[in-house]
Q: What sequence folds into this?
């Protein structure tokens, strides 16, 4: 589990950060927004690494004062 506690980002900064991160992978497919409200956002996607391994990634962000306050990700290897 990864918990990011060292930065506060507003929604626009977070989207830019995700775009940069997504660009570094070979492929990110099946993006799905699971839920978003004033307090949190949850989404999942499939990551294909350059070595061909695939992972289903679920990510959750909790907001505080309109910024991402806590972030958790979980990657499950897909056969």
A:
């Amino acid at each position: 589990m990864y918990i990011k506690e060292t930065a506060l980002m507003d929604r626009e900064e977070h989207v830019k950060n995700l775009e940069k991160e997504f660009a570094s992978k070979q492929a990110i497919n099946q993006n799905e927004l699971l839920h978003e409200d004033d307090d949190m956002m949850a989404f999942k996607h499939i990551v294909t690494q350059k070595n061909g391994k695939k992972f289903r990634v679920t990510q959750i962000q909790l907001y505080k004062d309109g910024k991402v306050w806590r972030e958790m990700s979980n990657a499950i290897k897909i056969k």
The mean pLDDT is 83. Residues 11-23 form the longest helix (13 residues). DSSP finds one helix and six strands in the chain. The radius of gyration is 13 Å.
